[in-house]
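This entry is passed on directly below:
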Amino acid sequence: MARSVDPLVVGRVIGDVLEMFNPSVKLTVCYGTKQISTGCDVKPSMASERPHVHVDGPCRNSRDGFRDDDLFTLVYCKIYVLASSLGRACMVMVDPDAPSPSEPTLREWLHWMFIVLIFTGREIVEYTGPRPPSGIHRYVFGLFKQQGGPLGSIRPPSARNNFSTRQFAAEHDLGVPVAAAYFNSQKEPMSNRRR
C-alpha cells in the first residue's frame, strides 16, 4: 500500500485519536517550506501560523466514492475544489498529549477545525499553534469526508480540552478518516526560538 497507516499505528495515532482506516486521498501539510512527513519533528515557532494543506485524491483502488480525476486543495481555512465529488468534509487538528504525554488529562486538545462545503470552507475553531509545556507532543491532522447529515450546522465545542475526534466523527456522521498526518513537537528553549 503506497500510503500506509503504519506510521500512524507506530505513533499511536491509530488507537489514541483515530480508528483504523485505509487512506483514500493524499494529505500534504506544510508549515512554510517544511513539509510534514508523518512523525517528523517541528518546532513550535515554525508552526505558529496556519499550515498550508493540500489534498490529492484518490489513492488507487479507493472505494470511497472518489474518481481518478478528483483533486482538491485546502489552503488555510478556504478550499478550492477542482472536482466536486469530495462534497462536504471536515478537518481537525488535535494534541492527544495535553498537558503532558505521561498524564494526558486534557486529551485531546483541539487546535483547529474547519469544514468544507462544496466550493467554500469555513473555520469553526480558530488555529492555535503548538505550545507543548513539557515532553514530546503529537499534533494530529484528521480529514473526514462527510457521509451525510448537515455538516454546515457544526458549532464550535464549548472548550478545546477533552475534545474527542472519534465522538465528533460519530455525532456528525463523518465515518473514518480519508487521510491523516501528524508531527511531533516539544518546548523550545528561549534561545532557539525563531524570530
Residues 59-85 have pLDDT under 50 and may be disordered. The two ends are 41 Å apart (CA to CA). The longest strand covers residues 136-145.
